[in-house]
Amino acid sequence: MEHAKPPTGTQAIGRALAVLKLLAAQAGELGTSRIAEHLGLSSGTAHRIVRALVAEGLVAHNPRTDAYYLGTGTILLGQAAQRGFGLDKALPVLEQINAETQESVNLVVREGGESVVMLRVQSTLPLRFEQHPGARFPLYTTASGKAILAYSPDAETYLAGLPERLPKITNRTLSSPAKLAAQLEEIRERGYSIDEEENVAGVRCVGAPILDADRCAQAALVIQVPAVRMPARRVRELGARTVTAAKEIAQFVPVDRMMSR
Q1: Residue ranges of domains in the chain, CATH in brackets
Q2: 20 to 30 A Cα–Cα from 225, which one of 57, 95, 200, 248?
Q3: How many whole angstroms separate alpha carbon 221 and alpha carbon 226?
Q4: What is the pTM of this model?
Q5: Angle at Cα 203 formed by Cα 176 and Cα 102, nearest 5°?
Q6: CB half-sphere exposure, 173, CA atoms < 13 A
Q7: Where is the IclR-ED domain (predicted)?
Q8: H-type helices in the chain, by residue range?
């Protein structure tokens, strides 16, 4: 049961952020009763929070449905964050690779034990894998996650914290930390990572780390291709292209800001 006392400042901020994250995850509208249900709040508390967020322009109200959705203020904040991370400068690089290859291209950052898609240019070919910014996956299952781990100072700590048998996402997901460690060594020798349908069946990916001045990574560039369009020769070609593009992006993306939580 929710505590009767008014929430502290820290608690109120946490609840407001939880509402924003919920609306972002839903990518639609929610009424206060649904917000309260999702977050374990009373209806009155949920209503007060959303009204405060509406007043700041971070949430908007649809009077026809009496529901709430992310407001224009979040767009402005997102655009400012993109500029701060240099993503506005990185986007033309992704668009160029997309134009050259006709394949989907992602810029991904690490958050704890997950890789999170920050920027995406989607393939326009009929056969493609749909994805969106904000999508997140375990590091060990993706080309992006493995590229980042290969150049992460805490890679050994991460490996030591994994279970002996890794949870399977597909039947080709790596089965053990030892196999992952071996792949990380290969990535350091080769310069790019490969996802052999380990995260999504039928999709192969290549990725390269975006390195800071100390050759550490918190971000990666990835090209994502249906397996039927990705023979071994093309893996090598696109792998080399990701390395070149990642080096270009590293010149203007402040990688040191992309710190793991």
Answers
A1: 9-75 (1.10.10.10), 85-257 (3.30.450.40)
A2: 248
A3: 17
A4: 0.77
A5: 140
A6: 19
A7: 73-255
A8: 9-26, 32-39, 43-55, 72-84, 87-101, 143-150, 155-160, 177-190, 232-250
